[in-house]
């Protein structure tokens, strides 16, 4: 009976150790968020994401961009957005549009390209990501 209890404790500790190590490994990822009010800034933002992915290696996590303000009007322009969306997809960058800005500037949500996600409040979403330890910059 003692051997069964001891073996159970050893197995439990082993599983717990593996779980903790997996959690620590996940926490090593470096996540980024950029809030911008200027769509042409996507070019240097995407270049920075690409370089950070190289520098961070395995530790590179999530990279998100939030577009707020009048710049959301540019999101419906396919000529402007096509290259940015292709580059974002290749680098794994998520582009978000602020829902409040879309409403304020009367941008039809149905005209937002498929590669752009809509968050209801871009500033709030930025704060929420910062609470999750995302490194943040506003341009």
Question: Could you walk me through the main structural features you see in this protein, from its secondary elements to its overall organization?
Answer:
The protein is of the alpha/beta class and 139 residues long. The chain has a single domain, classed as DsrEFH-like (Hypothetical Protein Ychn, Chain: A, 3-Layer(aba) Sandwich). The protein has helices at residues 2-27, 42-56, 78-91, 99-104, 122-131, and strands spanning 30-36, 60-67, 93-98, 116-119, 135-138. Strands 4-3-2-1-5 form a five-stranded parallel sheet, with helices on both faces. Residues 18-26 have low confidence and may be disordered. This is Sulfur reduction protein DsrE. InterPro entries: DsrEFH-like. Keywords: Signal. Residues 1-22 form the signal peptide.
Could you provide a short overview of the structure?
This protein has five helices and five strands; from the N terminus they run H-E-H-E-H-E-H-E-H-E. The chain has 139 residues and is α/β, with parallel strands linked by helices. A five-stranded parallel beta sheet has the order 4-3-2-1-5, with helices on both faces.
Please describe the topology of this protein.
Layout: H1 2-27, E1 30-36, H2 42-56, E2 60-67, H3 78-91, E3 93-98, H4 99-104, E4 116-119, H5 122-131, E5 135-138
Parallel strand pairs: 1-2, 1-5, 2-3, 3-4
